[in-house]
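SAMPLE LOG
Freezer: B-3
Tube label: C17
Construct: single chain, 184 aa
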Amino acid sequence: MSFRAILVVLLLTASIIIGIAIQKQQEKSHAGEASDYRPDYTLHQFQLTSLKKDGSEAFTLIAPKLERNPESRELNIATPRFHFPDSKQRRWRAQSQTAWVNAEGSEVRLNQDVLLDAPEGESKLRLETSSLDVLLEENIAKTDAAVLITQPGTIIRGRGLEAQLDANRVTLKSEVRSRYVPNQ
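STRUCTURE (predicted):
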């Protein structure tokens, strides 16, 4: 074998090995982009109150753990309990397995086993769904997922919901079914 042939084989082998190494490195970095980040701060066993742009209360949050993504400035929260005020400063109470708050603090997304209870003094309404988005400036909670609403004497099922938190009004979007359950 000539010197040139050996050199070509060595260069070809080296380029293949380098290409494979680059591809593996890119796969590792892309896999980490979606969920792996090192938070710039973490809170444990805390309570905080967030304010809207006008200075009024947006929500109060109690949770065992919060992490902030330093790149996006978004918050990821484990097993949160939120309190959203209505127009009379009573509280809608919400809880879920996880939650996300955008960088501006104007949107909250509750995910997995979401419960939303109407304020004290209103009907004993409880809303259950798999996800719920709360738009804080508009005082609206909404979802496209299946919803179960219970209150004394009534069970309502539907798909899609919009709740006007300041007016204590809930609207189901479609597939609505209601059942009367007499009080015992």
